[in-house]
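Milestone M4 deliverable, item 7.
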Amino acid sequence: MPRVGKLALATTLGAWSVGWGLVVVGGAAALGLAWRAHRAGAPATVRVLLAATLVGWALALGRLPGRPIERVHLVEYAVIGWLAWRAVRLQVAGEARALVVAMALGAALGWAEELVQAVTPGRFYDLRDVAMNGLGATLGLATLAVLRATRVSGGSPSP
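Output delivered:
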């Protein structure tokens, strides 16, 4: 996969997608979430979670200018966190508890991926990637929590 990533970065679309593309898509998503919270009349706690989540995404994505392909970890594990939540939400009592279990599962899967790389020829174990995977799962699930907390009655079904 590192070779595929390097090939993708060598293209205009690939370089844009992990650079300004993330800014554009992330900014549009942030505006959409803010609008959704406004329309739903979200309480202050949800608005604070939204602000913290958006700052978290901005800091995490902005701190990787030297290795832009590493940003993929954040998005990849945001999706894995969501999938983990889908897997555990009916087995775990309470929405907050299900989110925490999914976050732990997403982070554990990220650690397991790095452990596999430790024994794979040509790959190596990197604690920064473990942290990035866990952060991606956490930010993805925080975003999911905001989405679920700002459901507008009569709107689309919950994610």
